[in-house]
Amino acid sequence: MAIINNGKKDIFDIGKDITQTVTGTLDKVADAQKLANQKVTARTDLTDEKKMIVAKMKAEMGKDYMDPAKSIETHKKKIAKDLKPTERANNYYNREDIAWYDKFARFSYLDPYNGVNTTREYVFFTKPDLHIYEPRTRLLNPEISNMPIFADGHRRFPKVMEQLQMSVNDRTDFSPFVNLLTNATKSSLELPQINANTTETAQNIYGTVMGYRQSSEASDNAHEFTLEFEETKYLEVYMFFKLFDEYERKKYYGEITPPYESYITNKILHDQMSVYKIVVGEDGETILYWAKAWGVYPTSVPRDAFSDLSSSRDGLKFSVSFRCQFVEDMEPTILSDFNKITETQWKKYSKEMKIYDETNQMINGDWVHVPHIFKASSGLINDQPTYRLKWR
Fold first, then answer.
1. HEC profile of the chain
2. pLDDT in tens, 216-261
């Protein structure tokens, strides 16, 4: 560039500089365009070369020619077909090969499709309706207000006492279940085997008798079971059963009445619960089995758990004995009853809490408010219609 004595550029020199810059830029653009054209030509030449090779192979092989992509798929199918006898000889089968109702298995076999693998059991306790508070209030029932254990429980364990009385809250704003016990349960609900009674005819002259099966209804009545619970350092679970027992002592002597007269009129046992047992499959939703125990009440208080706490490093656990009036299982009406008592709470919450968090690709461990059961068009059981446990 031309520099004048005063340090400023001459107007003509500035024009020359601009011209040189623009010219250089245009040259670079032209070079880049040539390079791009060369690449396109090379790709075109490559495509043309491939077409020529394919045409030559077609001409040489005639009807035996096969497209490489299709050839790979054909070979895969052929390999799978050739391996099938080997797989069956080693007890490996496809889902459609396992035909329980139409064929017989001559040898043992592996069935990863229909076997019961990972399961989870939920135990739901419905609330009893002990007359601890006056209905729809937080005022102690005058019949027990003078008992120190209930007065202290009202002050220190109000949430526990609310779990003992269904009528303490408005029906539109309460959980029908004893969440405390469901969350603390650490064992499965034991169920009785169904056994039929039998009768026999008189013995004939040959000493032969004939046996006949009678009803099995006796198996559904008067069942006793035990559940294990994990306690907190606040003894909330223990106080649930302790307060229940203190209430029953008062009731036994006729010193306490139900919260409503309708319990007496309709002969309803206000101090008994129902317990639902629901077992889901590996997806956490598909219901494999369900049962219900009616007229449940605890028959023990685990006071002996406090005899020696020196070995409680793994937490305090104890067992409680129960007795129920009736047991039934796999009846669709059980699911209907379950939905009936959860319907109000289900409508209260709108967001469904799925088992799997697809956004973060992990299990959704959030705590939930209420369960509900829905019919599904297909499930884990041979793709048959089934039921699923949902949460909100």
1. CCECCCCCECHHHHHHHHHHHHHHHHHHHHHHHHHHHHHHHHHHHHHHHHHHHHHHHHHHHHHHCCCHHHHHHHHHHHHHHHHHHHHHHCCCCCHHHCCCCCCCCCCCCCCCCCCCCCCEEEEEEECCECCCECCCCCCECCCCCCCHHHHHHHHHCHHHHHHCEHHHCCCCCCCCECHHHHHHECCCCCCCCCCCCEEECCCCCCCCCCEEECCCHHHHEEEEEEEEEECCCCCHHHHHHHHHHHHHHHHHCCCCCCCCHHHHHCCCCCCCEEEEEEEECCCCCEEEEEEEEEEEEECCCCHHHHCCCCCCCCCCEEEEEEEEEEEEECCHHHHHHHHHHHHHHHHHCCCCCCCEECCCCEECCCCCCCEEEEEECCCCCCCCCEEEEEEC
2. 999 999 999 999 999 999 999 999 999 999 999 999 999 999 999 9
